[in-house]
Amino acid sequence: MNWLAAIPLRLAQGPLVLVTVAGVRGSAPREAGASMLVGPDFVEDTIGGGHLEWEAIAEARARLLTAHLTPALRHFPLAASLGQCCGGVVWLAFETLLPEDLTVWQQRAASNADGIPSTRRLSGTARCCEWSGEEQPGRLQLPAAGSEHDWQMLQPVRPPTFCLSVHGAGHVGRALVQILAPLAIRLRWCDARAELLADAPAGVECVGESDPLEAVMGAPAGSSHVVLTHDHALDLALSEAILTRGDFHWFGLIGSQSKRTRFRQELARRGFTPGQIARMQTPIGIEGIRDKAPQAIAIAVAAQILQQRERALAALRDTATCPRHSG
């Protein structure tokens, strides 16, 4: 949902075009519902790259030059004509957004950030999309033969279900936030030095509490946490607060093996059980990467976080498909 968070910021500067993967048949670079923003001199997010995206950007910018306001649906076979060999078919919806639409998009971006799902309907017969407060399945109604505008797209706009709190705005924390911000994660960036959060990417929730422990208490139940502050004493205090809450999905702490030993001993002294302490993962990052540059550490940790996100989403899917039995 990086595109949704970016719309209010970009739309305040002038018109832009929202390009959405309205439908897919066969193999394609992105799934139905993926979107990107195109302006005269910028692109936010992606519909999969390659020649398909290049053609989409060119058409979007042509719409801006000609002030074309009616939504359009385009059909792209992913074959030799596009220099791509996916073999599938993609339908792209092109939608011009105007600064006069800014208030609506601000409200929708804010609702999504608050965890409220919705669905938008776009058709070839109306300039603007319509919104519903209910989440509906995505669907594309193709135009009837001989009718260019007789089509309709339903796009679910779902808030991310995986929430991660990044505690620390130092070199690694900053690099990690930059990597994760474009992904489908509810990202909370926490540091008492609020000025360090001023340039957070669009869609990132900045938590500049004067008491860093308040950032732990304010996290939704089931969240994940990664602690990488500038202060070992603060790392320990945050670790204690996270373990005390106990209702987290995953908790990682940056550090060496010696730091791990010291923290485990101190947490045991403070009354935590071996089972509780074992839930704190440190060191962090996928194995096999020895580079200690902040960006390299951030990449290794980001990969581990994505693994955790896959596990959390799989658990949600299993819960949703598990049959219920009445007592």
From TrEMBL:
InterPro entries found in the cross-reference section: MoCofactor_Util/Proc (IPR052698), Xanthine_DH_XdhC (IPR014308), XdhC_CoxI (IPR003777), XdhC_Rossmann_dom (IPR027051)
Q: Which residues form the XdhC- CoxI domain?
A: 12-67
- Which top-level group of life is the source organism from? Bacteria
XdhC Rossmann domain ranges (all copies): 164-305
The protein's name in its UniProt record: Xanthine dehydrogenase accessory protein XdhC
Source organism per entry reads Uliginosibacterium paludis
